[in-house]
Backbone:
């Protein structure tokens, strides 16, 4: 059976990703930094859970140990955990920016490095980075793009960094059975944006699921949304 770990999955897009993968027969484990919320979400979904705070090396190491003991390997890692806040560059405190990078960038690297040994044991490992089109340099510098006016330094630059992280993992793991891709779920209504998005969390999750269950002939090192490839 295919096994999957999804970070930040006790709510929103992560929760829906877990639900959709479980419906497809995947043995899902959700990662949650709050044990109570993680246990509650797992019970609602009928899946497993581990305590996992992407900014805590202790919980990351412990989660990897639990997965190794339970499954021996890992087929899918969905780096879904993320936060969004802040404004334009001159109004962005450095502490706020550091906080976003701890979760959106450094946390992704920490979790991925801890899980790669398990993914290497899979016949078809998949790493999905949940990014955003607003991290695309092409989108940001295009005044005609609907997102062209957005100017949120910490969040947008953290997703730009995540896109580079994706490309470099894909480069290192090229030639292995592991495929690494970034996805943009679109503007989904979640508590990340005060439920203002025009897409459902399930619609956003479907993009993650498509890359999580990518076939052997699928790409690696790409950035995609529901409609296809997004320019970096």
Residues:
């Amino acid at each position: 059976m295919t096994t999957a770990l999804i970070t930040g999955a006790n709510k929103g897009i992560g929760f829906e990703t877990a639900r959709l993968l479980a419906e497809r027969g995947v043995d899902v484990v959700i990662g949650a930094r709050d044990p109570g919320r993680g246990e509650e979400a797992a019970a609602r979904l009928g899946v497993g859970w581990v305590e996992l705070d992407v900014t805590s090396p202790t919980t990351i190491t412990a989660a990897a140990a639990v997965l190794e003991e339970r499954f021996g390997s890992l087929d899918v890692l969905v780096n879904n955990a993320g936060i969004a806040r802040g404004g334009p560059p001159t109004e962005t405190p450095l502490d706020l920016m550091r906080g976003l990078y701890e979760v959106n960038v450094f946390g992704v690297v920490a979790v991925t490095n801890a899980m790669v040994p398990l993914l290497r044991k899979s016949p078809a490992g998949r790493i999905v980075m949940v990014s955003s089109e607003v991290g695309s340099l092409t989108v940001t510098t295009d005044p005609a793009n609907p997102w062209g006016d957005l100017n949120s330094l910490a969040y947008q630059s953290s997703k730009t960094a995540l896109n580079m992280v994706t490309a470099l993992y894909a480069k290192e793991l090229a030639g292995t059975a592991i495929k690494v891709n970034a996805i943009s779920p679109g503007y989904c209504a979640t508590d990340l944006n005060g439920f203002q998005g025009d897409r459902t969390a399930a619609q956003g999750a479907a993009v993650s699921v498509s890359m999580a269950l990518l076939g052997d002939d699928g790409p690696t090192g790409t950035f995609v949304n529901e409609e296809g490839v997004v320019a970096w």
User: Anything to note?
Assistant: The helical segments are 12-23, 35-45, 57-70, 94-119, 137-140, 153-173, 201-212.
